[in-house]
């Protein structure tokens, strides 16, 4: 659920770096670099998964070298783009099985890293499910609206519990 997503959005790495593993508007403050002695705050702003652009703003009291790992989602089939302070620094194809971009550099106060993951339509045929087809746009899978019937099965008036079943073919 959402608590797990928020908890796993930022991870410390074994080499004194940070990993942006799940994209969500957030802020992390951590000790990084050699012997984890320098403090950095990274402010992440994004509308992901509805938009593929993610922006990271760095706040440091001293310039510090550390690795920043950026997860490339498995569904991403086109080249992501990275810009640092407005200058493109990466725009090439990555492996198809999901991977990480690793930026090992000296980060300075007010650095702005823009990361764009290109969203695109994908289809998948589920041969084991009567050749059903799913359609996705980036990380989002479209769903068909169906009529539903709510049956109360318990709970209280303040916190009712329902089962929801289909009232139409799907």
UniProtKB/TrEMBL annotation:
Non-reducing end beta-L-arabinofuranosidase-like GH127 middle domain ranges (all copies): 18-118
Superkingdom of source: Eukaryota
Residues spanning the signal sequence: none
Protein name per UniProt: Non-reducing end beta-L-arabinofuranosidase-like GH127 middle domain-containing protein
């Amino acid at each position: 659920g959402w608590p797990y997503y928020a908890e796993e959005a930022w991870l410390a790495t074994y080499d004194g770096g940070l990993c942006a593993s799940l994209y969500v508007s957030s802020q992390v403050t951590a000790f990084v670099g050699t012997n984890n002695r320098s403090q950095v705050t990274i402010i992440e702003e994004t509308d992901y998964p509805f938009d593929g652009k993610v922006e990271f703003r760095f706040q440091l009291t001293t310039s510090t070298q550390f690795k920043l790992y950026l997860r490339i989602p498995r569904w991403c089939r086109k080249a992501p783009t990275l810009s640092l302070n407005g200058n493109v620094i990466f725009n090439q194809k990555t492996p198809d099985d999901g991977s990480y971009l690793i930026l090992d550099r000296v980060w300075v106060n007010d650095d702005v890293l823009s990361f764009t993951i290109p969203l695109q339509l994908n289809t998948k045929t589920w041969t084991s499910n009567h050749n059903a087809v799913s359609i996705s746009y980036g990380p989002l899978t479209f769903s068909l609206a169906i009529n539903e019937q709510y049956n109360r099965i318990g709970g209280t008036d303040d916190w009712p519990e329902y089962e929801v079943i289909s009232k139409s073919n799907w």
